[in-house]
Amino acid sequence: MNMKHTLAAAVAVALGTALASGAQAECMSDADVAAMAAAMVARTPAPNPPQDFSEADASCTRAKLNKLLLARYGTPIGYKAGLTNASIQKRFGYDKPVWGVLYQGMVLDNGATVDAAFGARPLYEADLLVRVRSDAINRAKTAADVMAAIDQIVPFIELADLTVQSTTALNGPGVTAINAGARLGVKGLAVLVPQADFAQAYLLDALRDMTVRITDSGTGAELARGKGSDILGQPLESVVWLADALAREGLAMRPGDLISLGSFSPLLTPRAGQSVQVSYDGLPGAQSVAVNFR
After folding, report:
1. How far is residue 70's CA from residue 17's CA, in Å, rounded to a whole number?
2. Interaxial angle between packed helices 55-73 and 30-42, expressed in degrees from 0 to 180 and rounded to the nearest 10
3. Radius of gyration of the chain (CA)
4. pLDDT, the chain, mean
């Protein structure tokens, strides 16, 4: 069976389970979630989820939204972990990560040109993708376990959309409810993960210690920077967290899935006519990745 079809089926089943288990939660209504999905498609601001949402409320609402996104955008290709950076958590007044589903067509190639207004509340950030090699990743307890279960590390600029009318009123459960703001992203050339244990250990250290920089391609000005350790102390720890979070909702990562690790930088607003690139100083073999905003 095609792996992506299998993932789509698993997501559909798990979303149904989440909806059933969320029956006691104060989910947003079907009509309100449909309006949110329509606003996302139209790139217009949607009403905010309630600020008193519990995690169960948010999870139930995300399940409803993902059911609609699945019908519109088709095959899921993986997941994103969001709010994995302490400074981003502080912005949303939340102390833990969240997750969303990535769909086919969301991930663009290096150098892609997109509208600066690619969403209702467009933002971009320096990120990384990893590609799952083995379903052992779902049992990962350490970053080393994750490294042993992936085959690629991919430079990535996430193009997120906070989508709501008031981003200042958006909290952690609200970010969950909007599928963690997943909209688009631009991927660069993959770094292949070595098989030898010592080489994987070296790459783990490099991921933790690297400096990630966003620069303006036109002027060369540095726009933002961060460290690998800004994501949970070690970037692959976000996948450890994700494996546990997905398991609690009846989901699992599958070979071939792409996983977005989170932000190494502040969330920045795109400007029409701007081109930016992200580089990963200290990560062996990593080349920069770029996006153009029109």
Report:
1. 15
2. 50
3. 18
4. 92
